[in-house]
Amino acid sequence: MEEEKAVIKIAVVGVAAVLLAMQFKEIKPQFAVYVVFGAGILIFFYAFGKLSEIVSAVGELSEHAAIEETYLEILLKMLGISYVSEFAASLCRDGGYGSVAGQIELFGRLSILLVSMPVILSLLELLGRLLA
To answer: How far is 36 from 21, CA to CA, in rounded Å?
Structure first.
């Protein structure tokens, strides 16, 4: 029940920020961007606070599923990179800087590829052993 309340709070903050930004947009457009950025950062840090719960839940899953911790660390890094780059790109896009958003997304994808290299290499090694 607590998570449902948290989602409702975050949704209210987001909708309120958008409605407030719409009011500012006609008077002072730069203030509208600040309101949206502020709400986005507030929501981001609230979500970041939930990270410890997610990490502990993934740890419990790894114990039950007998998955190597290294793979779970890589998965969490990939999720973190994805979330942060998407968040930053959305803020840039909302601010009217689509090209910067695209560069952030590209860097995020490349970072995910780099982080996932150990998994890809071990998979290729396994395939090589199976085919030999």
So the answer is: 7
Asked if residue 28 is part of any domain, the answer here is yes
Which one is predicted more confidently, 38 or 57?
38
Q: Is residue 3 part of a domain?
A: yes
Statement to judge: residues 73 and 114 lie in one domain? yes
34 and 76 together in one domain: no
For residues 42 and 36, what is the distance between their CA atoms, to the nearest angstrom?
10
Asked if residue 59 is part of any domain, the answer here is no
**57-101: pLDDT as tens digits:** 777 777 777 777 788 888 888 988 998 899 889 888 887 889 999
Q: Which residue do the tokens 């599923």 mark?
A: 65
Write the DSSP assignment of 78-89 as a string of letters. Answer: HHHHHHHHHHHH
The runs of H, that is alpha helices, within 28-68 are 29-49, 51-65
Task: Please give the residue range of the domain that contains residue 87.
Answer: 68-132
Structure-token pair, residue 7: 């989602």
**Contact between 36 and 18 (Cβ < 8 Å):** yes
Whether residue 72 sits in one domain with residue 14: no
